[in-house]
UniProtKB/TrEMBL annotation:
The keyword Flavoprotein does not apply. This is Nucleotidase. Coiled coil: none annotated. The active site is at residues 6, 8. It is an enzyme of class 3 (hydrolase). It comes from Candidatus Onthousia faecipullorum. InterPro entries: 5'(3')-deoxyribonucleotidase (IPR010708), HAD-like_sf (IPR036412), HAD_sf (IPR023214), Nucleotidase_putative (IPR009206).
């Protein structure tokens, strides 16, 4: 089975990172407009102006690229899935928007470095993907693991989607949508719902 895996919000906890770094930034910049947990982007969550949002990313882009932690057991579960014969395609909308000067165009490098740092295996890596539904069709995915609400709603019309729970995607439901809260729940859901994994002894793929 070809499994698509989002980066921000799935391999890492982008919601927690946004709140931690955004709160610090707003305090230091004397910005106090409240917090919207259902917002997906920084400017939606902290009600930032365009200039404030740019300044936030100028200060914190490398914290995201280098220091954000991996979700617990993500690499371990992905290793087990690949050992069971599944292909892992990491599919991210990250682009080079906030990488400037000598860092312009280096998003691919930083994504690969972060994945290597956390021992996350993959068969293909696709970044700068604005239309994930179209990309899922083009590369023949059987399942997508995603957190962004609009992507979940679009992609679930064509293939099953596991939505990693977050305040901003709480409204995502449907027969093709499976809500998950951890990487080992993802593993268990795949074992239970997809016969290709059911035929394999769990102990054999550790």
């Amino acid at each position: 089975m070809r499994i698509g895996v989002d980066l921000d919000g799935v391999l890492n906890d982008i919601a927690e990172w946004h709140f931690a770094c955004g709160s610090k930034f707003c305090l230091e910049q004397n910005i106090n407009r409240g917090f919207n947990p259902k917002g997906y982007y920084m400017e939606e969550q902290f009600h930032l102006t365009g200039e404030e949002n740019i300044e936030f990313w100028r200060q914190y882009i490398f914290d995201l690229l280098i220091a954000i932690p991996m979700r617990p057991y993500a690499s371990e579960v992905i290793h087990r899935l690949r050992k069971a014969g599944h292909e892992i395609i990491i599919l991210s909308a990250r682009d080079n928007q906030y990488l400037i000067n000598q860092y312009d165009g280096m998003m691919d490098y930083y994504v690969k470095a972060w994945l290597d740092k956390h021992n996350i295996e993959y068969d293909e890596l696709v970044i700068n993907t604005s239309n994930k539904r179209e990309k899922c069709l083009n590369i023949g995915l059987d399942l997508m693991i995603e957190d962004k609400a609009s992507n979940v709603n679009d992609i679930s019309k064509i293939i099953p989607v596991m939505v990693f729970d977050a305040p901003y995607n709480i409204g995502c439901t449907g027969k093709n949508v499976i809500r998950v809260y951890s990487w080992y729940q993802i593993y268990q859901e795949i074992i239970n719902k997809f016969a290709a994994v059911n035929t394999i002894d769990i102990e054999e793929i550790i």
